[in-house]
């Protein structure tokens, strides 16, 4: 288990313990997480897969709050200093 995942599990355990008013073991917590994963399998699988090229294009086409569209060329220039 990655260190950051272990820390997140510890924090989740502490929060669930606080909300329930009783100590919950990590074994019990992991069992509940597995149950949730089974119940929400479609959402879990969707969150675990990388975005498709079409999904990326769709998100990139959303307008910014200022009403301007973000173009890939602008991002490349601003973030990486690249020109196409």
Plain-language structure description:
The protein is mostly helical and 84 residues long. It is 68% helix and 0% strand. It has five helices and no strands. The N and C termini lie far apart (41 Å).
Shape: elongated
Helix content: 55-70%
CA-CA gap between termini: 41 Å
Assembly of the depicted chains: single chain
Helices and strands in order:
Elements (H helix, E strand, L loop, with lengths): L2 H18 L5 H14 L1 H8 L4 H8 L11 H9 L4
Summarize the structure.
With 84 residues, this protein is mostly helical.
Features:
mainly alpha; 68% helix; 5 helices; 84 residues
